[in-house]
Give the backbone structure.
Amino acid sequence: ETGVTQTPRHLVMGMTNKKSLKCEQHLGHNAMYWYKQSAKKPLELMFVYNFKEQTENNSVPSRFSPECPNSSHLFLHLHTLQPEDSALYLCASSQTGTSGAKETQYFGPGTRLLVL
Amino acid sequence: QQQVKQSPQSLIVQKGGISIINCAYENTAFDYFPWYQQFPGKGPALLIAIRPDVSEKKEGRFTISFNKSAKQFSLHIMDSQPGDSATYFCAASKGATNKLIFGTGTLLAVQP
């Protein structure tokens, strides 16, 4: 699957580390998303970017810092995380339209993050 | 505050049987209800979606039933196959927003 790629696939970090997650979409979409997936919880939307502009920040702690340099790339910068931040972080993309039709979100495989 | 409630949490079905997963929502402004399928090690993928102006949508072995008055919708998988074993998520969104509200997921195991 090459539509939406994420790196790294697995990451272990200490609470004092700084790391970044990378997402790249090859679908020509103009919207990108970060989700957090924890066991037995709904997927939690974290951030939404439309045309490289952040349009949604779902009350995410500042230790998570997103960056969207262009419509194809999305980063999530991590610093001073807590053990409860351990989860699967999913990136998605979609093509926003003007017709009002809902756009399918295409997900990457995720980065499995463990904070020690 | 969970806006989309999904049940059951897990489901075991025999091959050839019918799998049924239910979701209930609270916000009557929701107007789009997709179901996503997720295999281990993969991200969720859109399976089928419905809008509230129809009561049922069928695509192959997968059917969404929608009850607007009860604020409920369900996924039916007919002739379930071992390859259908995955986690299924219902979701909802409203208006022009591309913000999806997801359920907690149902882990389906289809036994051969």
